[in-house]
Amino acid sequence: MSHGYQAVGWNRQKKIYDRTIALGVALFLSVSVVAGLLANPHATIETLLIRALGAGAFFLLHVILAIGPLARLDRRFLPLLYNRRHLGVTMFLLALAHGAFAVFQFHANGNVDPLLSVLTSNERFASLPHFPFQPLGLAALVVLFLMAATSHDFWLANLSPRVWKGLHMLVYPAWGLAVAHVFLGALQPERSPVLALVVGAAMLAVLALHLAAGWRERARDREAGVGEWVDVGAPGEIPEKRAKVVALGGERVAVFRYDGKVSAVSNLCAHQNGPLGEGQIQDGCITCPWHGYQYRPEDGCSPPPFTEKVATYRVRLEQGRVLVDSRAEAPGTPLAPARVSAEGEVARAADPSQQEFYVGYLPEAPPGIARATRSVVVGLLLLAPAVAATVSAAHRRLPAAAFEHDVTRVFEGTVKEGAAPALRVERPVQPEARASESSYLLVARNKFGAGGLVSGLDGHRVRLEGKLIYRGGETAIEVQAGSLRDLGAQGRAALSEEDLGTRTLRGEIVDSKCFLGVMNPGQSKTHRECAVRCIAGGIPPAFATLDETGAPRLYVLLGPDGGSVAQECLGFVAEPLEISGRVLRAGERFVLQADPREYRRLP
Asked: Which of 93, 256, 465, 518 could form a disulfide with 403 if both were Cys (CB 3.0 to 4.6 A apart)?
């Protein structure tokens, strides 16, 4: 506040605050990505960014939720509270980037609108282990958007403090949605307990701080007395230019002592319902500790040109005791303060650590508060990379899988059409080679199969350009559009198929493109929606399982007659299954022919 109106803007403290936030975010993201690469060298950069942005937003959300109770427990945390909205907007931008990357990676470039895909690709609402976690994250993001979009004081003034505060209390439902999003999503496929312990510790810390602050506040909510006029204590019990907060008629009242006078006003600041009773009288005005809004103690009005007002209460002095009328007057009502005789009155000693008073719009914070704030900020800056490194390193190790997205190769071979289009290419003569040719699954760009590209070319020899995708002994080619040239129906005879009999296998259904290396990991619940889009777009479904020796093995999944089961298997993707069917082997490729009606879900 000032005698003349002047917008605070970005003062020195705000600039330092924002630069510190930027440094912390850059530190968290860089450490997260680097640690992720060291721990998981086969992870794609997209996967690492999605994880880093999500973890950063989740970490900031918990820091934000901790600031409020910390400021109530110790006013030295008030500098963090003053600019908390900056931290909230930063957290929303990280969450938005996380969501945008995830939607683009898992839902875009398919046969359904990306947002519709988020809401419809997984409809297992009746199963907790398979409950769709991405809509929960989307719902949390919508709430955080509303809060970020209304963070400016323009909205606070136009919505009214009560409505604005109610809207921003939605941060707690958003927190619950975010926690459910993490537990039902990222944590489910993880084998190490470290991630769950980190998330659990963050949740417990926030809950413990809120309970501690709430327990401390309970004392203030005990009614000071019953009746119209209530004895709130002796004048000496009120620190000079400070307040004693009492509960009268279910409302908190701040009783201030200053310059031999006592006045009482509502404890709720008209700006954001901040605690005026924790403030201090400066320049003759009650100054709110949250954002520095000021009110004259005798009438509850902000000094001109400001127009905020708070309710006032009548005060009188009887037999050395301060009595306050429990009935509030209208906001801005002028009332004469009670006169206090200085003789015989001894002001209550205040905690020296609490004597300093922070006002956010001033260029400098008091020395003690500044030192405490620097210590907390340095601690957070050290904690952020430690959390980032721990979370990144704790993720399960990913298999060697790759997608040569920046290398285009030329291939020549024979096309095999069907539910799983492939290209058979002759190998150089190698005595130790098991087969004289290789078979590459063919897929198109994005989340589409290559069936339309090779239609009518079964048995034809072709030349095409594409990018290799490989994992273990399985390889696929992403065919570059317009590159395929028909060299005529002079291809080699079809590979003979070896019937390995009926077998019962356990594993999960994946899409053969992402699983082989376009995305890594390309399986488990976190990849379900993407796999659904890929399979629905024509990419052959496959069954990922382990062979007799425990080594990973991929089976192209077909129906009993060798036809496509793409539509029938969509509801089973990324779930533990048991499938019994006929196993065939053609060269290096395994095929599982089974009736989708006989797929059995495992616990």
From this structure: 518
Q: Express as a percent the part of the chain with pLDDT over 70.
A: 92
Decide if domain 235-344 falls under CATH 3.30.2350.10: no
| pLDDT number for residue 367 | 85
For 104-140, write each residue's pLDDT tens digit: 999 999 999 999 999 998 888 988 889 999 999 999 9
Distance CA 316, CA 323 (A): 5
Evaluate whether 287 touches 279 at the Cβ level (below 8 Å).
Answer: yes
pLDDT at 210 over 60: yes
Q: What is the pLDDT of residues 57-67, one digit of tens each?
A: 999 999 999 99
φ, ψ of residue 10 in degrees (nearest 5): -95, 90
List beta partners, residue 437: 426
9 pLDDT band, cuts 50/70/90, is: low
CA distances from 10 to 18, 363, 504, 520 (A): 9, 10, 67, 43
Distances (CA, A) of 171 to 25, 30, 195, 300: 20, 27, 23, 30
Q: Prior bond to 521 cis, omega within 30?
A: yes
Query: What is the SS3 string spanning 29-86?
Result: HHHHHHHHHHHCCCCCHHHHHHHHHHHHHHHHHHHHHHHHHHHHHCHHHHHHHHCHHH
What pTM was estimated for this model as a whole? Answer: 0.86
Cα-Cα end-to-end distance for the chain: 63
What is the spatial distance between Cα 72 and Cα 216, in angstroms, rounded to a whole number? 9
Strands 461-471 and 422-426: unpaired
3-state SS, one letter per residue, for 535-603: HHCCCCEEEEEECCCCCEEEEEEECCCCCCCCCCCHHHECCCEEEEEEEEEECCEEEEECCHHHCEECC
Cα separations (Å) of 487 from 80, 294, 462, 480?
Answer: 70, 84, 5, 17
The length of the chain, given as a count of residues:
603
To which H or E segment does residue 312 belong? strand 312-313
Query: In degrees to the nearest 10, what's the CA dihedral of 34, 36, 42, 47?
Result: -110
Helix axes 528-536, 84-106, angle to 10 degrees: 30
Q: How far apart are CA 71 and CA 77, in angstroms?
A: 5
Tell how far CA 583 is from the center of its chain: 43
Q: For 394-410, how does the pLDDT look when each residue is reduced to its tens digit (9 = 90+)?
A: 998 888 899 999 999 99
Other CB atoms within a 10 A radius of the CB of residue 556 amount to 22
The pLDDT of residue 207 is: 96
Q: pLDDT tens-digit profile of 510-552?
A: 999 999 999 988 888 889 999 999 999 999 999 999 887 778 8
419: tokens are: 């539910």
CA-closest candidate to residue 553, choices 596, 515, 599:
515
CB-side neighbour CA atoms (13 Å) of 59:
27
